[in-house]
Specification:
With 316 residues, this protein is α/β, with parallel strands linked by helices. Helices cover 25% and strands 29% of the residues.
């Protein structure tokens, strides 16, 4: 967590020196003006910015280097600003680009990866993400750093009978990659994905998720929550029934929850699950934004009550 906070802070600092948090080397090392090495960076190119939902784009990125990333890893992704000084973008991004040789950068979570490619899902929410989304195939990119524990690796399969992934917006991207990885493992516990979006048009990879559900009916199920129609997942006890509306047998003590996306959702669910008695090692999290949002105590209480109802869903 400390490394990730440093990564976030570094985008608005004069020195970007995170090498101590990086567990491996790459082929290209960059240096700050005062000498200390920055995090190592891979040279890459954009294969495609694929629109996968309203306002959401999957960046398919190729590299000549051999890389080792998994869904849920966080890295720094860079692209040259529209001009050498970065003056064509918003002030924070422009200032950071000037400190980074004209390259914009930001922290992003890996959705998928091979030894020669990574996929990153972005939501157009500002000038930088817009520029990534409209970049053309062949655009030069750089990436580096490796932070957070991958989703699949963070789940103790020996003590878990069911996994619940709860996402908002593009937080679903790493979940999809993790689900694909998990389906390759015969012993991995079954997964319920609860993906929340503002509108139906924003649903990401709907057809792909339906196909995965059909092909792995005994291992995977998913539901989309449309907040403009139903409200937030935690807004009513009715909505929260998705936590226990499952075909997969589990109890409170052997269900693992991964929370990813809006900071308010993550904080409220983490607090609610803790209040229900879910052990800390059965809850993993990643916040994308809204880190300082005030927690709704009523929502926490509803989540706790819903989670406490966790019982075996399938008879012995």
């Amino acid at each position: 967590m400390r490394c990730l906070l440093l990564l976030l802070a570094a985008f608005h600092s004069d020195a970007f020196t995170l090498n101590r948090c990086v567990p491996r080397a790459s082929t290209t090392s960059l240096y700050a003006a005062d000498g200390p090495p920055q995090y190592d960076k891979f040279q890459a190119t954009l294969r495609e910015a694929e629109k996968v939902g309203e306002g959401s784009f999957m960046l398919h990125i190729d590299t000549e280097d051999v890389v080792e990333y998994e869904p849920g890893h966080v890295l720094a992704l860079e692209m040259e600003a529209p001009n050498a000084d970065g003056d064509d973008v918003d002030s924070k991004t422009s200032e950071d680009a000037k400190q980074n040789g004209g390259w914009m950068r930001g922290p992003y979570t890996v959705s998928r990866s091979t030894d020669k490619s990574i996929d990153i899902l972005v939501k157009v929410a500002g000038e930088k993400s817009k520029l990534f989304s409209i970049a053309t195939p062949g655009t030069p990119l750089r990436f580096g750093g490796k932070f957070k524990v991958p989703i699949v690796e963070g789940i103790d399969t020996d003590t878990t009978k069911r996994v619940v992934l709860i996402s908002t917006g593009v937080g679903v991207g790493p979940c999809v990659g993790a689900i694909e990885k998990a389906m390759e493992q015969e012993s991995f516990p079954p997964i319920d994905l609860i993906a929340s979006y503002r509108t139906e048009d924003e649903i990401v990879y709907k057809d792909h998720l339906e196909k995965l559900q059909k092909e792995h009916a005994d291992k995977f199920s998913w539901k989309a929550i449309i907040t403009s129609e139903q409200g937030r997942i935690s807004s009513t006890a009715d909505n929260l029934r998705v936590l226990t509306d499952t075909n997969f047998k589990s109890g409170l003590e052997d269900t693992h929850y991964h929370l990813i996306g809006n900071g308010q959702m993550v904080s409220e669910f983490k607090a609610g699950l803790q209040a229900a008695g879910v052990k800390d090692d059965k809850v993993t999290v990643e916040m994308y934004f809204n880190h300082k949002a005030e927690i709704d105590a009523d929502a926490v209480s509803r989540i706790a009550a819903a989670a406490a109802l966790e019982v075996a869903a399938v008879p012995q």
